[in-house]
Write a structure and sequence with these properties.
two-stranded antiparallel sheet, binds zinc ion
């Protein structure tokens, strides 16, 4: 993994200097994959694609930030948003079109961590509403659609997708993931799990 030198960029609203990190190169050696599509890769750390200014609270896409600042010794890093902040970012007017909405809603799903909610709380409303909206938007990956159904407790729908994957020779490379997910469906288990490599 080779990190790039951090760039000083500035908030589009108040001009606050921020540090934008990136990698020159990385790889997925030693990575762990979770059923919800999240990956933990020690050699490929992920930096936020969207965030907000710690000074004025303005939301932004990190790639839109212009270089600037200078003259000071240290600047705050661009932070990963919380669940509530990510939900607010969705309503900020900066998320446009299906692809961006899918991207941000997957981040929101992952921001919830490994939780599955059935306590009729506000969290459940947001978590479940987000997953239902993702299903409407139809992300490309079938495994992800099956996983959303599984987490919502819609095991028949999940099984139908998984069985179709497992019957399709052309999808052989995801058979191992699909059969592990199927085993969790058979146990009526809705929790996020870690894929084992075999
Ligand atoms: Zn600002």
């Amino acid at each position: 993994m080779i990190p790039a030198p951090p760039e000083i960029v500035c908030c589009p609203k108040c001009g606050q200097g921020l540090l934008r990190h990136s990698l020159l190169s990385g790889n997925t050696f030693g990575a762990t994959f979770y059923s919800n599509g999240r990956m933990e890769a020690p050699m490929l750390p992920e930096f936020p694609a969207f965030s907000r200014c710690p000074n004025c609270g303005a939301f932004f896409w990190v790639s839109d930030l212009e270089r600037g600042g200078g003259g000071r010794r240290s600047y705050p890093d661009i932070k990963e948003l919380t669940v509530a902040e990510t939900a607010a970012f969705l309503e900020s007017g900066l998320v446009q079109g299906r692809d961006q909405e899918i991207f941000v809603r997957i981040k929101l799903w992952h921001a919830f961590g490994d939780g599955v909610y059935d306590d009729h709380s506000e969290e459940q409303e947001l978590w479940e509403g987000n997953l239902r909206r993702l299903l409407e938007l139809r992300p490309e990956e079938e495994l992800m659609i099956a996983e959303i159904h599984r987490q919502l407790g819609q095991f028949d729908e999940a099984m139908e997708i998984l069985n179709a994957i497992l019957a399709d020779e052309e999808k052989k490379e995801i058979w191992s993931f699909a059969s592990q997910m199927k085993a969790h469906c058979e146990k009526k288990d809705r929790k996020v799990f870690r894929f084992s490599r075999d």
